[in-house]
Amino acid sequence: MKNINLKKSNDAENKTKGRRKLYNYIREVFDTDSFQDFIKDVRLEYDIPKKGFRVGKSQMHIPPKEWKLSKERDYRRIRMLYMDKIKPASEKYHLNYHIEGGDIIAHYLFYNSHSKVFGNFCTVVDVIERGKENIPKELEMKLLDSSFPVSVRISPYASLNDILDYVTKMYSYRIFPIQNKYKNKNIKIASFKRKDPRIITRNKFILKHADLPSKEIVKLIMKKFGPESAIDCAYISKIISLKKGTGKKL
Fold it and tell me: What is the DSSP letter of 110?
């Protein structure tokens, strides 16, 4: 795969629906109170700035070179951070630790940003080249099997149309049944749809003033966001009940 233009390859993958769905899911998870409390506690315990390190200075190095533990080469505590904090959090929030979850959480922990999303719903593996790497076969298969329990192997002579035709016609009969077998019914990644940032900001503003009467919140919204952002009392009550009553993401 040495001849592949990595930048073009990464740009293409960033445009896939799978990558966008994962980004939306991760953004919603990271915005929950429980995750924010987790980040706050870990930063305090491991001498990480309250708002993370500055991106420009650190250049997204994981872990940051200016982090106290990195300077002191305290590898024991660094390992503890990953094994005792990041790994359990990745499992709790249904992010695969070995493939992308651990990196995503670490990136947010250190830099307060979830813009750098890894992973997808599909992957490409050169089985022959992968076998040459110094990775125990048992571990390699375990990691791949846990993240991609459904495998579609492709002949080097198959054209794009051959592949699309096969997947399209066989999806309902061969692929979906296996997906459904291993799918966690509590995870609804596809349900996380991209929302206008203004709507997200407005909804957070409503929750911040949830103790006020709905009519008063309507006035505050119009004052802060303008008449075009006005919504009725019933919708405000729905937003508050979704967050506080059912715990659903807004």
Answer: H
